[in-house]
Amino acid sequence: MRYLPLSDGDRKEMLETIGVSSIDDLYCDVPADVLLDSHVQTLPTVRGELEVERAISAMAKKNTGCNSAPSFLGAGLYHHHVPATVDYMIQRGEFLTSYTPYQPEVSQGTLQYLFEFQTQVAMLTGMDVANASMYDGATGCAEAVLMANRVTKRNKAILSGGLHPHYRDVTRTHAHFNDFEVVSAEPDVDNVEDLIDLIDDATSCVVVQTPSFFGHLNDYTKLSEACHAKKALLVVVFTEVLSLGALKTPGEMGADIVVGEGQSVGNALNFGGPTVGLFAVRQKYLRQMPGRVCGETVDADGRRGWVLTLSTREQHIRREKATSNICTNSGLCALAFNIHMTLLGEEGLTKLSALNHARACQVADKLDTLDGVEVLNETFFNEFTVRLSKSATEVIDQLAERGVLGGVPVRRLYQDRPELDNLLLVAVTETTTDEDIDALMAGLTEVLS
Fold this sequence. Notes:
Blueprint: H1 8-18, H2 49-60, H3 84-90, H4 93-96, H5 108-125, E1 129-130, H6 137-152, E2 156-159, H7 165-178, E3 181-184, E4 203-209, H8 221-229, E5 233-238, H9 250-253, E6 257-261, E7 277-281, E8 293-298, E9 304-310, H10 331-367, E10 373-375, E11 383-388, H11 392-401, E12 408-409, E13 423-427, H12 434-448
Parallel strand pairs: 2-3, 2-4, 4-5, 5-6
Antiparallel strand pairs: 1-7, 6-7, 8-9, 10-11, 11-13, 12-13
């Protein structure tokens, strides 16, 4: 690594200190069959900037992006229109290069937008207080379970079969290293699960999702009452934040913790990231909430200002005592969320959510008329599950050859579940055109015939 000022002696001393004999030993947890045994030969070792740009551009053209083809991809990240104003604002130097606002006297702009962001998230979720963002929805879900364990002093979490598989797996990973129990329900394809009977005196929380991974909508008021009767917490998860502009809020359902993904507002897909986690809680649990909280105050002259109201130094120093060791809060993505939500306003958000749902209904109704396609959902927002007469993976590959990104095969996220092989997740947003729908219908008619 010629850009690091370390000698061979420095490296040897560092390896001896941590108890390994070579750099390769640091990758012992990575399966051998996925480790490269030589340098990547995609690019020549020596080329000028212009040649490198041309080579990388040629490689990039091999990708089919959501902006270049009819796209019905979803399953946790969604293709929405991001106004040009958002990118313009976040690329201003004072936002793009700002760092953690420890000194409020020079960070008022950053603190103000984070305060506004928190207010927006609290209003969207129907909760008392929100933090200044999390890394993403999946890690936020695991953090919610850890928080519930601290609040209840219990160590068993029940995960709904409608929870996104990535969120489930991240939570399981945290459980492995933090020594708590996870009970995962079976994939809830038909929206029939009843989690109340699973709650016992050892349960710290029940984690549910609406819209669920399979697109179903649920009111968890009764489940909330059952959790509280057993002194457990209800954690409500979402992956499509725009659904909160049309549905009953988790707060109205009695949720104690609400966590989800905010990518749909202000943040493009960017081939999978970065994204921004949203996290909101009841007021009484504020001090157990991970992350930071910005607050409003007045200065010595009575002028309105903003400060970091809650930020545990243990997060940065005594990590074993921290409420969270994921220090990244995706601040720039939170700013993008804040700007886009401000542009929309309450009326704009409601209209955008209604448009998403209407478009999804239009596609679902058309798909249900095709031979070999069965829409499984009675309720959904802008994403639903269909059962095909063939393997969904094979169908999607054939649609891609025809220039259509037809959705996400459920089996891709449930590789150990062959019985789900014919299920396909179809997401529809305001970016979906009539021509996109026609292309999907024509492609499926041809592929399934």
